[in-house]
């Protein structure tokens, strides 16, 4: 009675629908249906089909050479695919090229060269995207860690967990409700931030900071960011280019450089000691602060805009087009 199991005592290697011992099996062609892979067991499937199997914690199922999976459930184990087969760990719909529509909990997903993890849901797992692998349109929930490695692409994720983009990795169009870190050599393009993005030596291009914060640190570069009301961008030992403050705030700390920031109604550009803001444009309702030891250089202050020099901060080479530059003591 019960489901066939692989990884328990006795019985030899698992066969289609059969029981199996600890160790593993190779299925070339054919169909394996209803097998449970227990801890320590593995199955290699070449060109065959796996249906309604269970992959328990500590077990491994590898699909390659066009192998397919249908109705397979990961209960904490690993499911790995290569070539054009998508890496997946649970129920989904396989259409001959892409494994999609899965709902996965507690699985380690490895997307390697040629693999596509598309329109799936992952909770309490790990998603490792290797060179040549792609994850797109997936919903990533709490407890999951996503790693985008060199040569890999993550696109259009709905991220409620954490993601790290490593050197050579690219993330594009992700909605960041959790935490994203872009390391040295990594890139994030066109993401939207609702919680936190950290460019820790990496590059962020055309980011929309809807709420929460974008941190630009340790040689990181943010280009073309838009910061909306209530959101903020923070710069330390790094650089931003062409940030637009649509009611949001940009804070420039020691050794930070902000170039070409546009400050619109309700926006605030705040520069602290040893920070520099170059070529800013202050529009009506926008304000910039240069605190002690800070420099705002070459700003254009339009009508209704303000630049305040506070406690020894400097605004140099400022062009006033109807706006005001005010030197004050301590605020």
Explained architecture:
The chain has 331 residues and is an all-beta fold. The protein is 0% helix and 53% strand. The protein contains no helices and 52 strands. The protein has a 17-stranded parallel sheet, with no helix packed on it. Strands 13-14-17-20-23-26-29-32-35-38-41-44-47-50 form a 14-stranded mixed sheet, with no helix packed on it. The protein has a 13-stranded parallel sheet with strand order 15-18-21-24-27-30-33-36-39-42-45-48-51, with no helix packed on it. Strand 13 (93-94) and strand 14 form a beta hairpin. The radius of gyration is 26 Å and the shape is rod-shaped.
Number of DSSP-assigned strands: 52
Shape: rod-shaped
Distance between the termini: 78 Å
Radius of gyration: 26 Å
Provide the residue-averaged pLDDT: 84
Number of helices: 0
Secondary structural class: mainly beta
Strand content: over 45%
**What's the main sheet like?**
17 strands, parallel
User: Portion of residues in helices?
Assistant: under 10%
Spans of at least 5 consecutive residues with low confidence: 1-22, 82-99
């Amino acid at each position: 009675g019960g489901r066939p199991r692989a990884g328990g005592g006795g019985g030899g290697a698992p066969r289609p629908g059969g029981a199996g011992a600890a160790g593993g099996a190779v299925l070339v062609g054919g169909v394996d249906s209803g097998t449970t892979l227990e801890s320590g067991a593995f199955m290699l499937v070449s060109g065959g089909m796996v249906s309604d199997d269970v992959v328990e914690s500590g077990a491994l199922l590898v699909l390659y050479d066009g192998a397919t999976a249908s109705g397979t459930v990961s209960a904490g184990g690993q499911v790995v695919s290569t070539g054009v087969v998508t890496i997946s760990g649970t129920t989904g719909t396989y259409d001959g090229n892409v494994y999609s529509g899965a709902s996965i909990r507690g699985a380690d997903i490895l997307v390697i060269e040629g693999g596509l993890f598309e329109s799936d849901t992952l909770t309490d797992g790990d998603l490792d995207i290797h060179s040549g692998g792609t994850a797109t349109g997936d919903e990533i929930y709490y407890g999951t860690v996503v790693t985008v490695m060199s040569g890999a692409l993550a696109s259009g994720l709905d991220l409620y967990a954490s993601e790290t983009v490593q050197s050579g990795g690219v993330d594009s169009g992700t909605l960041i409700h959790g935490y994203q870190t872009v390391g040295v050599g990594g890139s994030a393009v066109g993401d939207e931030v609702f919680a936190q993005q950290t460019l820790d030596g990496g590059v962020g291009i055309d980011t929309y900071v809807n709420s929460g914060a974008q941190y630009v640190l340790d040689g990181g570069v943010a280009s073309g960011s838009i910061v909306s009301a209530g959101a903020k961008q923070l710069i330390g030992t790094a650089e931003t280019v062409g940030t637009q403050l649509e009611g949001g705030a940009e804070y420039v700390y020691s050794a930070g450089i902000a170039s070409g920031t546009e400050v619109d109604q309700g926006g605030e550009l705040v520069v602290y000691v040893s920070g520099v803001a170059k070529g800013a444009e202050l529009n009506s309702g926008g304000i910039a602060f240069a605190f002690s030891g800070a420099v705002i250089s070459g700003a254009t202050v339009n009508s209704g805009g303000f630049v305040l020099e506070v406690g020894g901060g400097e605004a140099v080479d400022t062009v006033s087009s109807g706006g005001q530059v005010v030197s004050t003591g301590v605020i």
